[in-house]
Design goal:
Shape: globular
Radius of gyration: 19 Å
CATH architecture of the largest domain: 3-Layer(aba) Sandwich
Strand order of the largest sheet: 3-2-1-4-5-6-11
Largest sheet: 7 strands, parallel
Bound molecules: ligand F7E
């Protein structure tokens, strides 16, 4: 059988690294889009950490540059395209609303256009987000729950989501949208709350820091492991028909309780170290998210395999290890 070619945008991010590893193990030839920056030595840190930096081919490109995307798709001839790239930090989206709309929103249109023009038979995955539910309209969010985004990021993701649906219905693209709830790992960026907490716990345990300043401790999220979630992305593209799927664990936990679990993993008390810092509060908050992954379980035979306790232990241990070896991520 011919080798399958995958193109991953956002390959240097957390999900890009886990997905690359997953696809390489399945025998795919993996290509990635690289947003070129001067610091070439740090771009593949995650790919190196996970052990696949030598097995992927990177192409300079940007979601805002349609002709460049077309050239890359012509070169790679992908059978599967995973559009993971985005300005993905919600808080930054208020500081950079236009850029967020351009990359996270219109970037999806560019990818869909490039696909339609060069490889309409390729299967397309769009990284949609639970942030689209924002001010939740139902206590458990499924594929039929109405959206109500609460940030420029959520609004941009919602546009990208509907463009994916539209290209599927207009042009018959095999385009699927995964509405992924928060998913974390040792490769999570330090600006996101889970990694900020596990890194902080490790620093406090090693006497490198005394306090952990955080924003809204009452926010609740449905947190899973990125390793489990990239498998769901792939499963969506193996279906005969494209569709949209909620990917979540079905359990929601507050930031405060996440802290309690993370500190107790190293025998410390969260209340002794966590302090409120209003700089981390947001102009509009998503107070609670809880996904209903029933459709994914029934149609994809997918379930979240890692518990929150296992995820936290893995993240704290990885951060302790990194700090002890003076490594950075
Ligand atoms: O915030 C609260 C914060 O930045 C989670 C992205 O991957 O998931 C992610 O978006 C919660 C919020 O993730 C701090 O207010 C408290 O309620 O880790 P986060 P997010 O905004 O949920 C979705 C699914 C995506 O698609 C996004 O791309 O934690 N929080 N204190 C804090 N958050 C941060 N970052 N830092 C704090 O100090």
């Amino acid at each position: 059988m011919a080798v399958k070619h995958a193109l991953i945008t956002g390959i240097t991010g957390q999900d890009g690294a886990y997905l690359s590893k997953f696809l390489i193990e399945k025998g795919y030839e993996v290509h990635g889009l690289l947003r070129r920056s001067a610091s070439a030595d740090v771009v593949d840190t995650r790919l190196k950490w996970i052990g696949v930096a030598e097995n992927v081919t990177l192409h300079d490109g940007n979601l805002t540059d349609l002709s460049g995307l077309i050239r890359i798709l012509e070169t790679v001839e992908p059978t599967e395209i995973y559009n993971l790239a985005a300005q993905s930090f919600v808080k930054s989206s208020w500081q950079q609303p236009y850029l967020t709309g351009l990359v996270t929103g219109l970037g999806v249109t560019n990818m869909l256009e490039a696909t339609r023009l060069t490889c309409p038979q390729a299967r397309f995955y769009q990284a949609s987000s639970s942030e689209m539910f924002g001010l939740i309209q139902e206590p458990e969010q499924s594929e039929s729950t109405p959206f109500y985004p609460r940030s420029p990021y959520g609004a941009a993701k919602l546009y990208g989501h509907w463009m994916t649906v539209n290209y599927r219905e207009s042009f018959g693209l095999h385009a699927s949208s995964g509405i992924l709830f928060n998913h974390e790992s040792p490769l999570r960026g330090i600006e996101f709350v889970t990694r900020k907490i596990t890194d902080g716990v490790a620093r406090i345990k090693l006497d490198l820091q005394k306090t952990l300043p955080l924003g809204n401790l009452d926010a609740k999220r449905d947190w899973g492991h990125a390793r489990d979630y990239v498998k769901a992305m792939w499963l969506m593209l193996q279906q005969d028909e494209p569709d949209d799927y909620v990917i979540a664990t079905g359990r929601t936990v507050s930031v405060r309780d996440f802290c309690t679990l993370a500190f107790s993993h190293v025998g410390l008390n969260a209340e002794d170290h966590v302090v409120l810092d209003e700089r981390y509060l947001r102009p509009a908050e998503v107070n609670v998210l809880l996904g209903d992954p029933t459709k994914a379980r029934k149609k994809l035979d997918w379930v979240a395999e890692t518990t929150l306790e296992e995820l936290i232990a893995e993240m704290v241990d990885a951060d302790l290890d990194r700090l002890r070896h003076h490594e950075h991520l």
